[in-house]
Write a structure and sequence with these properties.
One of its GO terms (biological process) is signal transduction. The protein is mainly beta and about 170 residues long. Helices cover about 15% and strands about 40% of the residues. Strands 9-1-2-12-11-10 form a six-stranded mixed β-sheet, with no helix packed on it. A six-stranded mixed β-sheet has the order 3-7-8-6-5-4. Strand 11 (about 120-125) and strand 12 (about 130-135) form a beta hairpin.
Amino acid sequence: MADYIKPVIFRLGNQQFGVDINLVQSIEREINIVRVPNAMKYISGIVNLRGEVIPAFSLRKKFGTDDNVGVIGEDSTVIVNIPGVVKLALEVDEVLEIGDIDAQSIVQMPALARTVDTEYLDRVANVNGQLVILLDVEKLLTQSEAENVKKFTEDMNDNDGGAANV
C-alpha cells in the first residue's frame, strides 16, 4: 500500500485517479507518443524524454475503458518510476492537481472492486468532495509484463542512437 500524503491527481474520462507523487518523475504536456504496432497489451507506444526512451502506458486499455467519453482535456503524460522495474509514461486526459489528502479521507478500496486483476486499485479518497481512486503503480504491470517492458526499454536505450531516433 502506497503512502498518499500528496498524490498527483489526474482525470481519465469522467473519473479522477491519483498516484503517489514520490513515484512521479515529471508531468509532460504535448509529448509525442510514437505508436508501436503489435506492442504488449497496454503499451501504446514510446516517448523520447530528454534522450531516454520510455514506454507509453494506456490506462484506458488497462482499465477496459478504451473510449474518450467526449471529455475535452489537455492530454498530459505522467512519467512514473516503478522502483527497480521501469519508467512508464501514463497517458492521462488532464492533470488536475497535486493534492493534500487528509488520512481520514482515505478508505480501503471496496472488496467488490478488488480482484486479482485489479490489485493496482489501492484506496479511495475524498478530495474536495470528489472521489479519487488511488493507484498503486507498482502493481499496474504483472511480473511477466514488467520483465518484458524492462527488457524492451533496456534494448531501446542500449541501442546505439536508439533514443535519438525516436
